[in-house]
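Sample entry follows:

:::
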Amino acid sequence: MTTHAPTYSLARPFIRFARPALLTLALAGTLGIAGCFSYETFTVGEMKAYVITVPPGTAINLSSTYGDVDIAGRDAPLPAWTQNDGGTGTIAATEGETVVVAWFRSSHAERLEQVTFTPTLVGGTLTLDPQWPAQVGKSKDAVYFAIRTPYELGAVALRTGYGDVDISLPHESAQIKTGYGDVNIADTHGATDINTGYGDVGIARAAGPINLTSGYGDLDLSLADDFTGGLTISTGYGDIDLRSPTMTAGEVVIKTGYGDIDLSRQGLTSGRPTTNKKRSATISGDPSAPAWTISTGYGDIDTNLGKE
């Protein structure tokens, strides 16, 4: 079988990456015995790339106060922010390797020399947690992350104060919290839990229960054919669009403080939708199935549930 090694290009002035010697770090664990975690590091200005060997199903635990997070398969191009300032640089990842690109930015240049960041792999979880020094004045610090991996991931836990989140490869579950930023994820096998203060949210082909809360933003969700579990969707201000090829809920309660509700293609096991001044609707389904709740303070709600 012929395999290929993907090549990732980082654009920076007058820089071309070279592969340094392999770094091997001992993992933290009981009595310090937990095997070895190997990776290579490339540094270009404020941008660093890590070529890491991790097993299939590795979980991701990532924290950042400010910055976008983009997680995709090995053949996906890197995001636009990696093509900064002209010039070229290339990283070649071999079969089975994962690439993590981190771009460090700060309003105070001296802080770029003080931030510490060491990827760790413990108990099947890859932790990416930059540590900035204590704030001085009103400095703004950011780390943008791009992850390219050949494998499906385990549980993904992301926390960012400000930044967009994109996950476009299959993963076991997702727990995402962002203060300000759009979130787009696809192909979650298990539970999805998203909390965003301000930003649009897109979920595609979700197969497990969903708990989604947004203070301000539109919500667009499509469920997988084998979706099972409860569904709680809420936004303070924004439209909601929900599509599901099957109707697996018990009772579906839909509410809007101000806006229209459109109920279409209801594949119900029993009952019919009931409405109250077009501001709320209740749909009866399988009594043994979990309930779904869909609500917005201000906005339209469109549902396309089941088959005609």
Q: What stands out?
A: The CA atoms of residues 64 and 160 lie 5 Å apart. The longest strand covers residues 97-106. Confidence is low (pLDDT under 50) at residues 10-36, 267-277. The two ends are 45 Å apart (CA to CA).
